[in-house]
Write a structure and sequence with these properties.
Helix 1 (about 15-25) packs parallel to helix 5 (about 270-285) and helix 5 runs antiparallel to helix 6 (about 290-315). The mean pLDDT is about 95. By secondary structure, the protein is α/β, with parallel strands linked by helices. It is built from 8 helices and 18 strands. The protein has helices at about 15-25, 50-55, 95-105, 215-225, 270-285, 290-315, 320-330, 335-345, and strands spanning about 1-10, 30, 45-50, 65-70, 70-75, 80-85, 90-95, 115, 120-125, 125-130, 130-140, 160-165, 175-180, 190-195, 200-205, 230-240, 250, 255. Strands 1, 2, 8, 9, 10, 11, 17 and 18 form an 8-stranded mixed β-sheet that branches. Bound molecules: flavin-adenine dinucleotide (FAD).
């Protein structure tokens, strides 16, 4: 049987960043994924905060960036807003297929990954895959939301998310606009810059009612024709939006990314949490010290996620009225603080 220091289940952001950490430590590892191509199907809009990109070491090579964000506007569909223009980019939108390929093949040279390989189940240190059995000292789970290896999330614990890339010129005001609305409980509608001729327009919300995401986006588009444009591609998936897990290590098994709800509940952004948790789990496996990852999670990653989790609870307790109240309060903040707070999300 083949034997590795570590097997990683999943080649999304969390799994690839774990691979980068293991490769940097010259460990013998393999990343397994059932999909046929890195980056496909696209699972993310790809928007991230530059402050966090730099702080946790995510890549920012210009060739994987489709647009930069220096103007952001948070709005409600009844007309309240917090809108900020910066004199420099505070965020970027990755070109998602290029971004994941960059993690897999360029950031640290080519990682050792195998595609079209499903992990069926794990028994002790033996990983049973569609392509035979593999033994590993450490197993890093990075299999995304609602995978067979994670806890099943309820309707008020995961957002449904649906996005259309639409033919639209760049907005003249902001590169990133988020609307809060009772049409999208717990989530929002977004309009992000992509290319000179396209923008990404999508919805995410707790599926508490029966409405289909496409119908919700269509209804929003009827109300706000400024986001109407010919559809080029669509993308749909789920985003866990609930309290981050308390325990992320079990023996020499490590749980990362969406599997442990490493998603910022306020923005539904999970790329940063996936990268940070995956990379930290990779370091822990390389050091043969699982407690390193749990400590990093307890002391840095989880408190950061919990701040967003609590704020999200306040924002959505009474639907869009709670968001409006927070927006009114934020008008009292000095502009410099407001810019720092929102620019650092
Ligand atoms: C529509 C949408 C828009 C989003 N926009 C943003 C955004 O703008 N910014 C942001 O920060 N976040 C965004 N997110 C969230 C972000 O994309 C996710 O949080 C992040 O991609 C999670 O990464 P991950 O590595 O944990 O999981 P994933 O990227 O889901 O990777 C999991 C991988 O595991 C593989 N896998 C699963 N089970 C098995 C198995 N049994 N065997 C082998 N392989 C397996 C899957 O094929 C998959 O490749 C968005 C999400 C959605 C759905």
């Amino acid at each position: 049987m083949e034997k590795f220091d570590a097997v990683i289940v999943g080649a999304g952001t969390a799994g690839l960043s774990a691979g980068i950490a293991l490769k940097r430590s010259r460990k013998n590892y393999v990343i397994l994924d059932r999909k046929g191509e890195i980056g496909l199907p696209v699972r993310s809009t790809g928007a991230v905060s530059l402050m966090w990109v730099d702080r946790i070491g995510m890549p920012r090579d210009p060739k994987i960036v489709s647009s930069e964000i220096s103007g952001i506007s948070f709005r409600t569909d009844s007309g309240k807003d917090v809108s900020l223009q910066y004199d420099r980019p505070v965020g970027l939108v990755y070109d998602f297929t290029k971004y994941e390929k960059f993690l897999a093949d360029e950031m640290e040279g080519a990682l050792n990954y195998r595609l079209k390989t499903s992990v069926n189940f794990v028994e002790g240190s033996v990983v049973h895959t569609s392509d035979g059995d593999i033994e590993a000292d450490h197993i890093i789970y990075a299999a995304g939301p609602q995978s067979a290896f994670g806890r099943k999330l309820g309707k008020s614990e995961a957002l449904v998310a649906y996005e259309e890339t639409r033919e639209l010129p760049p907005r003249k005001d902001f590169q990133m606009v988020l609307w809060f609305s009772d049409l999208v409980p717990g989530g929002y509608v977004w309009d992000f810059a992509e290319s000179p001729t396209t923008r990404k327009v999508g919805v995410c919300y707790y599926p508490l009612k029966a409405s289909q995401p496409k119908a919700v986006l269509d209804e929003f588009t009827r109300r706000f024709p400024e986001v109407d444009g010919k559809m080029q591609h669509t993308m749909a998936h789920q985003i866990p939006l609930t309290e981050p897990a308390a325990t992320v290590v079990n023996g020499k098994s490590y749980y990362t990314g969406d599997m442990v709800n490493a998603v910022l509940n306020t923005t539904a952004g999970g790329l940063q949490g996936a990268f940070w948790s995956g990379y930290s789990a990779g370091i822990a496996a390389a050091k043969n010290d699982p407690s390193y990852y749990q400590k990093k999670w307890d002391e840095e990653i989880r408190p950061w996620l919990m701040k967003h989790h609590r704020l999200h609870g306040r924002m959505h307790r009474k639907g869009v009225r709670s968001v409006e109240k927070l927006m009114t309060l934020s008008k009292l903040m000095p502009m410099s603080i407001k810019k720092r707070v929102f620019g650092g999300l």
